[in-house]
Design goal:
about 425 residues, 13 helices, about 20% strand, alpha/beta
Length: about 425
């Protein structure tokens, strides 16, 4: 409720395990009723105005709609009437919901939705959260390492915080940025940020930047496991490399060298431990985007570009999406590679999942692609454009960044340490 809930990382949904929910929610409702709304220049005031009348109206309509659905709504009584009459104020509000699906969009303001869940339904809850498409910040409070590992591994959020608050990321300690509907570009304060501002850079710049960001590390969580499809991704890249070598340099002149070059330059995989305060473990990693659409011209030259794109996609551990008119080339690939490449009859269909696009072709063809993607619902999809024959694929555009901040001082269940500001 600080800053009237108008910080990007402010909590929107609080999910509480049912076993302890009644007591926690009762305390939370009591605390909210004590908050004072009014002119923030007054020391006694806790919550100031939202940014404008449009935001105020949107929030009030949402609150009314939730109340009409039968949701419990709690708001404070202590309101500075004089100030409220002159400004765009929304009293801090708690809304109890039954399902994440009741929220159709982000509610940006001093409104907190509270959801009870069963311990046995945690995995399903995490899927529901991911299905919203928003992925900026997620926080988890638990004394059980296995639960922490389950939440962190399932989270599709740019910044995850364990046993600490989730507002106020520090540049260089918790590089900040989301994914999906909550962001598409590099993290502010992260090692890949400056690369986006350059017209050109060395092919291994992303890997070197990530390595320089910190030291080798791994989340200090019992039950932590590697990505489930990492082995399949590695096998596919090895199969493509062997296939390219077997084809010979006359058939695939650029592919074999691209496979080796991309594998040496790709930044994805390892966790890095970043510098930070004592009592915290701040970690950073780079992961492959789920699927990359590969587009190139027809003919042998276009197929060569498509294979170079595939080498880049597999090198970072991602999956490729090809237009179905490249099915003949797809059938020539090894089985392990084909399993990482999906054929799309109509790549412009909203049903085709993609998180990035690689494009080799003319400026006119690129314009048509951009126009089509601009009409696509959901998250913005970034496009990396290259001229035909250009084998310099920007690998940093094929990955996402994750930051994990763990309050290690709370390990062992010392609740008093968890309360230290």
């Amino acid at each position: 409720f600080r800053s009237a809930g108008q910080r990007c990382s402010a909590l929107r949904v609080l999910c509480v395990q049912r076993d302890g929910a009644d007591r926690l929610i009762a305390m939370l409702e009591g605390a909210v009723r004590e908050l004072r709304v009014g002119d923030p220049r007054r020391l006694a005031v806790d919550v100031g105005p939202v940014i404008d009348g449009d935001a105020q109206g949107l929030l009030e309509r949402h609150i009314a709609a939730m109340r009409d659905q039968g949701c419990r709504v709690v708001r404070p009584a202590a309101v500075d009437v004089d100030a409220v009459s002159r400004g765009t104020f929304v009293p801090p509000t708690l809304i109890t919901i039954a399902h994440i699906g009741q929220l159709q969009r982000e509610v940006f303001g001093p409104v907190l939705h509270v959801l009870r869940y069963d311990r046995s339904g945690l995995a399903d809850l995490l899927q529901q959260i991911n299905a919203t498409g928003y992925g900026l910040t997620m926080g988890v409070h638990t004394r059980i390492d296995e639960t922490l590992a389950q939440v962190v591994q399932a989270a599709q959020a740019g910044n995850v915080y364990a046993n600490r608050n989730m507002v106020g990321a520090v540049v260089g300690v918790q590089p900040f940025g989301g994914e999906g509907l909550s962001g598409t570009g590099p993290k502010a304060g992260g090692p890949l940020y400056l690369l986006r501002l350059l017209r050109a850079c060395p092919g291994d710049a992303a890997r070197r930047a990530v390595q320089a960001a910190g030291t080798d590390g791994q989340p200090p969580i019992r039950g932590w496991a590697a990505a489930p499809d990492a082995a399949d991704a590695q096998a596919a890249w090895q199969a493509l490399t062997a296939w390219a070598t077997a084809q010979g340099r006359l058939a695939c002149p650029a592919l074999a060298s691209a496979c080796a070059r991309f594998a040496a330059a790709q930044p994805a995989g390892a966790w890095r431990t970043l510098n930070g305060p004592t009592g915290e473990a701040n970690l950073y990693t780079v992961l492959p985007r789920e699927a990359v659409l590969c587009l190139a011209d027809g003919g042998e030259a276009g197929q060569a570009d498509l294979l170079v794109q595939l080498a880049a996609v597999l090198a970072v551990g991602s999956r490729a999406v090809w237009p179905a008119d490249h099915a003949a080339l797809w059938e020539r690939l090894p089985q392990a590679v084909r399993e990482r490449v999906s054929l799309a009859q109509d790549w412009q269909s909203p049903a085709v999942h993609m998180a990035a696009v690689l494009h080799h072709g003319s400026a006119d063809a690129l314009t048509r692609v951009l126009q089509s993607l601009a009409l696509r619902p959901g998250p913005i999809v970034g496009v990396s454009a290259m001229a035909p024959g250009d084998a310099n694929v920007p690998l940093e555009r094929l990955v996402i960044e994750r930051s994990l901040s763990i309050n290690t001082a709370a390990a062992g269940g010392n609740a008093s340490l968890m309360m230290i500001g």
